[in-house]
Write a structure and sequence with these properties.
Radius of gyration: 18 Å
Largest sheet: 12 strands, mixed
Helix content: 25-40%
Number of helices: 8
Organism: Pseudonocardia acidicola
Protein name: GNAT family N-acetyltransferase
Shape: globular
InterPro entries: Acyl_CoA_acyltransferase, GNAT_dom, Rv0428c-like_C
Pfam families: Rv0428c_C (PF24553)
CATH superfamily of the largest domain: Gcn5-related N-acetyltransferase (GNAT)
Order of helices and strands: HEEEHEHEEHEHHEEEHEHE
Distance between the termini: 27 Å
CATH architecture of the largest domain: 3-Layer(aba) Sandwich
CATH topology of the largest domain: Aminopeptidase
CATH class of the largest domain: Alpha Beta
Length: 247
């Protein structure tokens, strides 16, 4: 679990990412829980009370709320919960997340529909995923540039050229991280999502990846069913924990 969580963190780079033993303290102006949580996947090198104090100090320094991301049922989940931290039930994107994996050869065969893939995000891509131009923080996370993961931005159009859907793909070592899949309401259930995923998978294979990894909120049953149909399986789950007063 730890390696996969680290790969996902590398694919979704925070503006600030500080090591605390085997923990990663991350901040990105509050944009997404993944980029604004301490990733607890190993020994922080400190007593757990001191490690959580370090999380609080780091988040105060960066103006975000304290939050720990850790695999459900693991030793660090139990340790953090044992010090009174609770599920971040107010997290709108979902406090519990399923990490899915799939072979890229299978995902790449899902559809032959044409999808535009580019190494930079266009204005149309930003409009579709954010509703407008990105902030500096959003651009850093989604389009990190030199030093970040190799990234592609997929865009599907209708015959008239209007955008139908988007996806973001990032290669980290032998995995392709897929995120920001979105299809306009009128085009859903028409194969657009499968086409975007397949195009991203083929691109990942071309750039040395062998497996796909996705992070999907447990409550998002529609997305989980979609990826299940494409052959993805659940590897593990993680959750976000916060101090009781932060809920």
């Amino acid at each position: 679990m730890g390696r996969l969580e680290s790969l996902c963190a590398d694919a979704w780079p925070a503006q600030a990412d500080r090591q605390l033993g085997s923990w990663r303290l991350r901040a990105a102006g509050g944009f997404t829980g993944r980029a604004n949580a301490a990733l607890a996947i190993g020994d922080p090198g400190l007593p757990i009370t001191d490690a959580l104090d370090a999380v609080r100090a780091f988040t105060a320094e960066h103006g975000i709320a304290p939050r720990v991301q850790t695999p459900i049922g693991g030793p660090w989940s139990r340790a953090v919960a044992g010090h009174g931290w609770v599920l971040d039930s107010g997290h709108e994107a979902g406090a519990e997340v399923a990490v899915l994996v799939a072979g890229l050869d299978r995902l790449g065969a899902a559809s032959a529909a044409e999808v535009e893939l580019a190494g930079t995000a266009t204005g149309e891509w930003w409009d579709a995923t954010l509703g407008g131009p990105p902030t500096a923080v959003q651009r850093h996370v989604l389009e990190p540039g030199p030093g970040g993961p190799r990234t592609a931005f997929g865009l599907a159009r209708d015959p008239g050229g209007r955008p139908l859907g988007v996806i973001r793909a990032a290669v980290v070592e032998d995995h392709l991280h897929l995120a920001r899949l979105a299809v306009v309401p009128g085009a859903r259930r028409g194969g657009v999502g499968a086409a975007l995923t397949a195009a991203a998978a083929r691109w990942g294979l071309e750039h040395g990846a062998r497996w796909a990894v996705l992070q999907v909120a447990v409550h998002n049953t529609g997305a989980r069913a979609f990826y299940d149909r494409l052959g993805a399986t659940e590897h593990h789950r993680y959750h976000y924990l916060v101090p009781p007063t932060a809920r």
